[in-house]
């Protein structure tokens, strides 16, 4: 049984931060995708529409996408971008890779959601930030889901437009809090 999509919620934050780096409006969209959610394409289309804010105002998506992206790089990242952005450290477990770009909804759900997430990121030129600022050490991956000993993955993401990446000073995943 498919579950109806949980609608994303976007909030406009203004003047909440008196930082020497940024003191303007930020848009924050909270996301939760149920593990058995239906209408995934429609849900990601809705998220894409939520990215329509003035280009100078950062927009952050944060939440539980229940999606696997492994170490796949967003397809809009160019060679020049890869030198100016950051080192990507993702989930190294091959079982946590997104589905093939040619896949259909018959792929395992987290793999398929990962492919739809990467497709959305490329269409709106957003990047995954969690665990990438500063570059994590190889033995400290930015895992966000822990079940039992040695069972972990990345299912939760923080996303921002590539053009706003220079505003980020740090974005880390804290474990065991």
Task: From the structure above, extract its key features.
about 180 residues, five-stranded mixed beta sheet, about 20% strand, 3 helices, alpha+beta, two-stranded antiparallel sheet, single chain
Summarize the topology.
Blueprint: E1 9-13, E2 26-32, H1 40-49, E3 59-64, H2 79-84, H3 109-124, E4 126-128, E5 145-146, E6 152-153, E7 156-161
Parallel strand pairs: 2-3
Antiparallel strand pairs: 1-2, 3-7, 4-7, 5-6
Helix pairs in contact: 1-3
Our measurement of the CA-to-CA distance between the termini, rounded to an integer number of angstroms, reads 34 Å
Total strand segments: 7
Would you list the SSEs in sequence order as H and E? EEHEHHEEEE
Low-confidence stretches: none
Helix tally?
A: 3
Structural class from helices and strands?
Answer: alpha+beta
The whole-number mean of residue pLDDT values reads 76
| Strand order across the largest sheet | 1-2-3-7-4
Whole-number radius of gyration? Answer: 16 Å
> How many separate structural domains?
1
Q: Which sheet architecture does the biggest sheet show?
A: 5 strands, mixed
Query: What share of residues is helical?
Result: 10-25%
């Amino acid at each position: 049984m498919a579950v109806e999509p949980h609608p994303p919620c976007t909030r406009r934050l203004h003047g909440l931060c008196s930082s020497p780096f940024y003191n303007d409006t930020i848009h924050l969209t909270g996301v939760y995708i149920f593990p058995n959610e239906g209408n995934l394409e429609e849900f990601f289309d809705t998220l894409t529409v939520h990215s329509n804010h003035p280009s100078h105002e950062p927009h952050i998506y944060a939440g539980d996408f229940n999606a696997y992206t492994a170490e796949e790089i967003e397809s809009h990242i160019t060679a020049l971008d890869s030198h100016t952005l950051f080192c990507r450290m993702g989930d190294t477990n091959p079982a946590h890779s997104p589905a093939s770009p040619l896949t259909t909804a018959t792929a395992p759900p987290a793999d398929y959601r990962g492919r739809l997430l990467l497709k959305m990121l490329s269409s709106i030129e957003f990047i995954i930030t969690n665990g990438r600022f500063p570059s994590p050490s190889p033995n400290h991956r930015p895992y966000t889901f822990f079940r039992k000993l040695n069972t972990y993955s990345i299912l939760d993401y923080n996303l921002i437009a590539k053009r706003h990446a220079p505003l980020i000073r740090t974005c880390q995943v804290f474990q065991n809090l």
